[in-house]
């Protein structure tokens, strides 16, 4: 098939997953992932990320709705898509007595057209550990081995379930670089993560799940824009909050005062900051400890999780 960057490689509509005891872990979700995109699924603990990814990987069948991966149903047409996808599970569960190279070789035997194991071990920085038994690897090195195995088939679509859990800061950066390079090479990546910084760094688009539903979908910038920005400063000596220009007219939605420290929240950051600085200049005063910042993905995440608990009916979505 001709590579088309607008092609939806993953399409999920009305997807539901119900476990044996009747618990509905995924409650009708919709999203799509374009070719060559990195898409992150974020969420609170137990939000339903792994339950969703398992449906995309064809490991279980949905209780309702539909999944298409590369145009196929991953459960009933597993044979068609398996050679074109790579899966990194949360727990690889490989025999701990085998060495790293033996594990890769064993796994390569299950993958049609597998790359040489040395090549994938080099990609994840494990070539020097080829002769080491899996049980002697650190937790982070095991995650890297899991990733190497997912790359053996040179997949078009890569599923990464918490790829950097247990990695130190350097290992995490290395994995981000590798995922970035894979994306640049045209690989479509769907990942779950608990690290908001990871999603901010890697994801072209993301969805935040909460209690089986998607609360918001969009680019990291679109999602952070759902939360107000903040301006913090110290009141100049001899001034009170009442001396500032009317805050509502500057687009400030609320403010708090703690001693001399004033904290403003606004969805119109430029207008509020300009108004405040113009006032300070006019008054000939300095706003000490001035800090102006957009919401981080973490603030948006916390705000969305809180809102989603209060209102389960209206997911926010931005243009794909
Ligand atoms: N086999 C199962 N039987 C019954 N309930 C399950 C089963 N597996 C998961 N669940 C429940 O489904 C919900 C979603 O779990 P899931 O593992 O998909 O969440 P998650 O978003 O991946 O969480 P985490 O971030 O903690 O890994 C949780 O409430 C979990 O307890």
Automatic annotation (TrEMBL):
<dbReference type="InterPro" id="IPR003593">
    <property type="entry name" value="AAA+_ATPase"/>
</dbReference>
<dbReference type="InterPro" id="IPR027417">
    <property type="entry name" value="P-loop_NTPase"/>
</dbReference>
<dbReference type="GO" id="GO:0016887">
    <property type="term" value="F:ATP hydrolysis activity"/>
</dbReference>
<dbReference type="GO" id="GO:0005524">
    <property type="term" value="F:ATP binding"/>
</dbReference>
<keyword id="KW-0547">Nucleotide-binding</keyword>
<dbReference type="InterPro" id="IPR003439">
    <property type="entry name" value="ABC_transporter-like_ATP-bd"/>
</dbReference>
<keyword id="KW-0067">ATP-binding</keyword>
<dbReference type="GO" id="GO:0046677">
    <property type="term" value="P:response to antibiotic"/>
</dbReference>
<keyword id="KW-0813">Transport</keyword>
<dbReference type="GO" id="GO:0005886">
    <property type="term" value="C:plasma membrane"/>
</dbReference>
<feature type="domain" description="ABC transporter">
    <location>
        <begin position="10"/>
        <end position="236"/>
    </location>
</feature>
<keyword id="KW-0046">Antibiotic resistance</keyword>
<protein>
    <submittedName>
        <fullName>ABC transporter, ATP-binding subunit</fullName>
    </submittedName>
</protein>
<dbReference type="Pfam" id="PF00005">
    <property type="entry name" value="ABC_tran"/>
</dbReference>
<dbReference type="InterPro" id="IPR017871">
    <property type="entry name" value="ABC_transporter-like_CS"/>
</dbReference>
<dbReference type="InterPro" id="IPR050763">
    <property type="entry name" value="ABC_transporter_ATP-binding"/>
</dbReference>
């Amino acid at each position: 098939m001709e590579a088309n960057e607008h092609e939806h490689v993953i399409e999920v509509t009305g997807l539901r997953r119900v476990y044996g005891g009747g618990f509905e872990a995924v409650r009708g979700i919709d999203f799509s992932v374009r070719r060559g995109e990195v898409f992150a699924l974020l969420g609170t603990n137990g939000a339903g990320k792994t339950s969703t990814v398992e449906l995309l990987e064809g490991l279980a069948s949905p209780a309702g709705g539909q999944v298409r991966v590369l145009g196929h149903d991953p459960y009933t047409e597993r044979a068609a898509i398996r050679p074109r996808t790579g899966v990194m599970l949360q727990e690889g569960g490989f025999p701990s007595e085998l060495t790293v190279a033996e594990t890769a070789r064993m796994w390569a035997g299950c993958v049609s057209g597998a790359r040489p194991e040395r090549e994938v071990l080099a990609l994840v920085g494990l070539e020097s550990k080829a002769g080491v038994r899996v049980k002697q690897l650190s937790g982070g090195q095991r995650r890297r081995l899991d990733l190497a195995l997912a790359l053996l088939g040179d997949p078009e679509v890569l599923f990464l379930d918490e790829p950097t859990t247990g990695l130190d800061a350097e290992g995490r950066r290395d994995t981000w670089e590798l995922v970035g390079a894979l994306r640049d090479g045209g690989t479509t990546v769907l990942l779950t993560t608990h690290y908001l910084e990871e999603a901010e760094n890697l994801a072209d688009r993301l969805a935040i799940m909460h209690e089986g539903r998607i609360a918001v979908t969009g680019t990291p910038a679109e999602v952070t824009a759902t939360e107000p920005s903040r301006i913090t400063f110290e009141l100049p000596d001899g001034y009170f909050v009442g001396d500032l220009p009317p805050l509502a007219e500057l687009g400030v939605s609320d403010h708090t005062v703690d001693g001399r420290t004033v904290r403003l929240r606004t969805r119109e950051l430029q207008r509020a900051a300009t108004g405040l600085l113009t006032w300070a200049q006019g008054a000939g005063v300095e706003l000490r400890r001035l800090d102006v910042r957009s919401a981080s993905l973490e603030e948006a995440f916390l705000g969305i999780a809180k809102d989603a608990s209060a209102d389960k009916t209206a997911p926010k979505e931005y243009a794909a």
